[in-house]
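Morning F.,

Quick status update on the modeling queue. The single chain you submitted on Monday has been processed. Sequence for confirmation:
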Amino acid sequence: MSSEVFNPNPTVFAPSKAKKSARTYAKPHSLWLDDEESTEDEEYDQSDAPEGIDQEEIFELIRSISDPEHRNMTLEQLAVVSAPQITFDPKYPDRIIVEFTPTVPHCGMSTFIGLSIRVRLLRSLPQRFKVDIKVKPGSHQSEHALNKQLNDKERVAAALENPALLEVLEQCLSTVGDSAHEH
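Structure tokens below.
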């Protein structure tokens, strides 16, 4: 990895509060998972329909990824990712488009950022989801080349076979869900 600093003084934003918390089955002040009578609305859904997902849930998966250049900051804190940048194709609800905004137009870490988002979602989402990772239009000088690279299965697979790249990627993903980065 290059030791060149692309953005030595990034603007840091306060992280937003999670709009959805992880689903909890325990009642407050209870030793049991569910010690109250369940109502018809709360009963387990046994349908075969796949469970849907929304932009907030996707955002929760990627917000705490560490920036590869500024490891003590998350992608959310640097405003690289946000919930509104996550969209679903209206024709194909299992197709997710995640747009990210590099901190500077010449950011040399954009490939790592896009790759870390892709790997996090690949590891977290069911296989039925197709994820497209894109740089926000006009936010990077090599926007088209980056978009092509980040969405090419063979290039992504080759990058994940590179031990040096994989080490940086794992470091970026090691803070996912870490509450110390959320403040």
